[in-house]
Amino acid sequence: MNKENAHEEFKAFLKAGKHRITPERFEVLDYAIESGDHFTADELYLEMKAGKSNVSRATVYNSLELLVKCEMLAKRNFGENKTLYESSYNIQNHGHLICKVCGNIIEFNNSKVSEIVDKIVLKNNFKADSFQFNIFGECDKHSR
Fold this sequence. Notes:
Blueprint: H1 3-16, H2 23-35, H3 41-50, H4 57-69, E1 73-77, E2 83-87, E3 95-99, E4 105-108, H5 111-123, E5 133-137
């Protein structure tokens, strides 16, 4: 990830939407993109606090929503009414294997899935910009 490019993209988005440009929003951006994993808003807030950040919980929640609108983060719901975020900045579409027992999430890429999505989109004359592919079941720790 090029941090400078991410900052410039987010700054342009904030200006265009007439949102305030604050250092705290960029701090949330940095933590969120560098996380490299799926996280809740509260998990990110606690991670930032552990890193001695002074950012408020409200700022984290509001900034995450702005980052989703800016398409730098993706908002995912893998069941159980738990919203997770993941970076979508310079990351290709991918799928998720979600364990219903422990909540473990395994990401995967498969060109065949992308090909099927492309065919469906073409057949239905639809312009897609992203997709989600989730498979629910039990991970190897629980499926014995």
